[in-house]
Amino acid sequence: MSVRAEGLREVKKRRTRQMISDVATQLFKERGFDKVTIAEVASAAGVAKMTVTNHFPLKEDLVLDMHEEHVSALARAVGQRAPGESALAAMRRDYLERVRRRDPLIPDDDMDWQRLVRDTPALRARLRQIHEQAEHALAAVLADETGDAGITPKLAAAQLAAVDRLLFFEGQRLVLDGVSSEEIYTILAETADHAFGLLEPALGGYARR
Q: Which residue numbers delimit the HTH tetR-type domain (predicted)?
């Protein structure tokens, strides 16, 4: 298969996946997460039920469709830090850059989506799992790059990931309070800078490349 054909195949796959997620999320918003079946999602999206489950083995990920990006984001930011940059500095810089470019992982003004996640126990549980996976991935990178198999990388990852997690829920709160997207981005940037700053005394020089 040619590179171009493979590229077109991947594009089609991504578009199908996004379409299924969009259709499912709209149904969940209208009727509730627990009241919509996978078969109904497949029917509404015009695809086979197996196509839905192939793209989304977990029903919750139809809503939290960027879970893979979320899990890898912290480890990627630290793994790609610049020479002389600490893990904390890399995460602060990366988060502020994501705010500036309006990264889809940053909560925006989709109040119905945020309310769906907040009010659905299964989605809240899956979101906690995603945050935990992101923390574990970050700890693994820190352990590998510092050569420390002890508790320090895990403790550092827990503190850094906690900031990312709290920023998500702060963004969610702002959305549900009806704050505009531009105001949310401004508030989250300021909050992130403050929160990471609070960790500077303990982690400011940790894992400096």
A: 14-74
Kindly state whether residue 116 falls inside one of the protein's structural domains: yes
According to the model, what pLDDT value does residue 1 have?
Answer: 46
- Mean pLDDT over residues 130-155, rounded? 98
CATH number at 81 reads 1.10.357
- For residues 83 and 47, state if they share a domain: no
C-beta atoms surrounding 130 within 10 Å: 20
Domain holding 97, by residue range, is: 67-203
pTM above 0.70, yes or no: yes
Query: What's the rounded Cα separation, in Å, for the pair 36 and 43?
Result: 11
Residue 46 lies in a domain: yes
Number of structural domains (the chain) is 2
Task: Check whether residue 105 and residue 199 sit in a common domain.
Answer: yes
What pLDDT, on the 0 to 100 scale, is given for residue 6? Answer: 59
8 Å CB contact between 122 and 60? yes
Q: Judge if 28 and 52 occupy the same domain.
A: yes
User: Tell me: the pLDDT tens digits for 122-142?
Assistant: 999 999 999 999 999 999 999
